Structure formats: structure tokens, C-alpha cells
């Protein structure tokens, strides 16, 4: 099930970053950063009451270049229109209604995307009035007074946002076709890979109607199985600003990955793995997706019989935070190993949804505990009572222990390795939740 995307749009200094940080930080849990991957806050996974959504920040605008502010705002708004399900348009009550607000509001209204109008910096909720109501003139609905800095009105704001979530639309439970996202930097060969896969298989429809986002979905039948490929390749934005391009590509990746079971992380063999690749892969990792690292353009490098081995080791070093990832070396040009790609997708997807019986699981864990004593501290030793799998996508285990504090990261890792030895789970991350039972 994928989450709705919420984007924040507004002029410089109205309080976008403040709002983003408050929403991402407090009411809300942000997925912990992937070790070794620096990440600016382009997106955050949030929950509000029973709703989960992904908040995206469409980007900063240089406040000192007033002549290009409107152009940048339009660009930002366009990114939001392209990717978001709901847009929070934020204005500043202290500055009042500004011409560029009206222009951007026109653009948002024409897009027919749901827009929630937040009037920020209303620091006193006792005496707001016409200064807030003035924003009705934007013609995009009721202004919601908030103070991002003082955390006022945020519940009302999120209620308005959540009204636009349409659960059915994101509920893919009924749809059990494998969903595969193809992500990676520009020019690594994403389009070529998808074309090759389409070329050799039957394509049913492309551009499925009813999806509100601009990701291009393509249905493909291979060996009697229907797959949905979610492609980010064709969707490039032209921008003069390098940061904007990168930001947009990350936002696109987040929205595509969200909807997928398995992610094909494409890298270019001739370039090796870069920091941007690690960042992109981190998105899939954070979200617990199945991951296949597809090293493309394998035809273009010189190799000996050791090259694959050496190359894999190098990749694993850079992507050390996801040791479970599968690797495959392909050429979209020659078609080398493109068939194997489908086999890997099937395998990883099965592992994403694999359920292990509790009895067998506890046999493995008991054996593991006997082989390596659990850690102790100040004379108290960790006891593991019981382990059970509670969900899939990714497979998630609850471990009942005597004292959570005693459960070291390294011991969880040890148990994970034992579980992997027994059941495989190749290509998927595993999640462990530690619970105390006295
Ligand atoms: P952005 O450029 O739209 O991201 O704006 P920022 O989040 O950086 O905020 C611009 C300025 O407005 C900062 O100095 C914030 O501290 C201030 N600010 C943000 N929210 C509020 C608010 O609710 N009340 C007041 N008085 N100031 C705020
Ligand atoms: P995208 O931006 O990730 O969708 O990348 P494209 O599919 O547009 O490919 C970028 C460039 O790499 C094009 O010039 C392709 O012809 C080339 N390319 C793609 N796959 C391969 C491959 O397997 N081998 C070689 N040698 N070139 C490739």
C-alpha cells in the first residue's frame, strides 16, 4: 500500500522550512537516516492520527533574487502538481496578500489538485480576523490559520489535508501483481532497460488511467505473470538549477519507490557507484522494499573472469547498509541477462511476502542463542523468550525479551543473519521490533 504525497509550496520566508520541520519532527516520526548516507530533508515519512503520508519539500528559493522568485515559485508549484496528491500552499499573514501568491494560486487552481491554504505566522489565535480572511481572495478555499513556529493550528491543518486522502486509491491490496520501480540517476539506462523488457514481452497498457501522479505505469506479461513497471525515466524536468534537478529526481524516486514492491536500482557500470546512487538506493532501503542493484552497460567495460566478483565487492562496500541486496550485471544494449532479471524480481518479491511459521522460527532462534550467548550488562543477561513474524513487505519480526536495553544492535544483526541463513530472504530487508515481557 503506498502513501499519499503532500507537498509544501510558498514564497520565500513564509515559513515552509519551519512547517516542514515541525511536521516531520514532532507529531510525526521520521524514518531514521540510513547510516553513512547524508540526506537533506527533501522528504519525510509522517503520520497524523491514523494517516500515513510522505511530506515533500519542493525546494528553496533564493530570497535575494526577487526578479526570478516568481519563476522559481512556478517551477516549485509545478513539481508539486506533478508529484503530490495534496498541496499545502503557505502564505504569510504578516506580509499579507502578495501578487506572486495570486499567480501561484491561479496555477494551483487550474491543476485541480487538492490544495489546502495555510496562513502562517498567526501568532495569536485570539484575535485574528480580516488579515486571515483576506486570503479568501486567492480563490483556493478556506484559509487555515497556523503558526508553524508556535505549533498552533497544525491539527486543523492536517485534518484538512487528510480529508483529501482517498484510501481506496492507494490500497493496492486487491492488486497482487508485482510492482517494480526502476530508479537511478539520469543516463544509467533506465529507459533502455524498460524498453528491452517491453520489447520481448507483451505490453498491455501504458499510462494507466486514474493514477494521480505522473509516474508512468506499464503493464507487462512475462511467462504468464502480469507485472506493473513504474518508470521514472521519461520524467525529466528542465531546469537551470542543478539542485532543482537533483531534488526533483529524488522526489520522483520517492513517489515511485513508495508504490513498488521491488526496486531495480540501476547504475552505470562505466561510472561505478556514486554518492548519488547511494542516496537513491537509501530511499528504497528506508522503505523496506525489495532491492535489486542492476549494473547496466556491462557490455561497455573490459573484463576478465574476476571482474564481476571484484565489482560486486566494491558495490557492497559502498552500499554496506543493505547487505541483503541482490546484484545483477546486464546490458540493455545486447540483452545480456535481461531474462534473469525477471527471475530475480520473482524471487525478491516472494521473499518480501514470505511468512515463516513461528515454531520453525523459534527453533532457529533457540539454536542461535545456544551457539552465541546473548549480551549482558552489570550482571544481567539478555533473555530472548519468543520471536514471531508479524507482517510482510518487509518481513517484520517481534522479539520478546526480558530487557530491551540489553538487546544490542550487534545481537539483533546476529539473529538476523541466522534467520537469513535458514530462510534466505534474499533481496529484502528485515525489520525487528524488540518488546519487553516481564
Ligand atoms: P521558508 O523560506 O518559507 O522556508 O521560511 P522559514 O521556515 O525559513 O521561515 C522564515 C522566517 O519566518 C524564519 O525566521 C522563521 O523563524 C519565521 N517563522 C516561521 N513560522 C513562523 C510563525 O509561525 N510565526 C512567526 N512569527 N515567525 C515564523
Ligand atoms: P536513462 O536516462 O537512465 O533512462 O538512460 P537511457 O536509457 O536513456 O540511456 C542513456 C544512454 O546510455 C543512451 O545513450 C543509451 O544508448 C546508453 N545505454 C543504455 N543501456 C546501455 C547498455 O547496456 N550498454 C551501453 N553500451 N549503452 C547503454
Short synopsis of the structure:
The protein is built from 13 helices and 18 strands. The chain is α/β, with parallel strands linked by helices. α2 runs parallel beside α3 (99-111) and α12 (358-371) crosses α13.
Tell me what you see in this structure.
GTPase that plays an essential role in the late steps of ribosome biogenesis. It contains 13 helices and 18 strands. It has helices spanning 16-25, 66-83, 99-111, 130-133, 154-163, 167-170, 190-199, 242-258, 275-286, 307-318, 338-352, 358-371, 409-423, and strands at 5-10, 43-48, 51-57, 86-92, 115-120, 143-145, 179-183, 202-206, 216-222, 225-231, 262-268, 290-296, 326-329, 376-377, 380-381, 384-391, 396-401, 431-436. α2 packs parallel to α3 (99-111) and α12 (358-371) crosses α13. The radius of gyration is 24 Å and the shape is globular. Residues 26-39 and 204-214 have low confidence and may be disordered. By secondary structure, it is an alpha/beta fold. The chain starts with a strand and ends with a strand. It is 35% helix and 23% strand. The protein has a seven-stranded mixed beta sheet with strand order 8-9-10-7-11-12-13, sandwiched between helices. Bound molecules: guanosine-5'-diphosphate (2 copies). One guanosine-5'-diphosphate (GDP) is lined by residues 10, 12-18, 120-121, 123, 147-150.
Features of the shown structure:
single chain; 438 residues; alpha/beta; seven-stranded mixed β-sheet; six-stranded mixed β-sheet; 13 helices; 18 strands; binds guanosine-5'-diphosphate; GTPase Der; GTP-binding
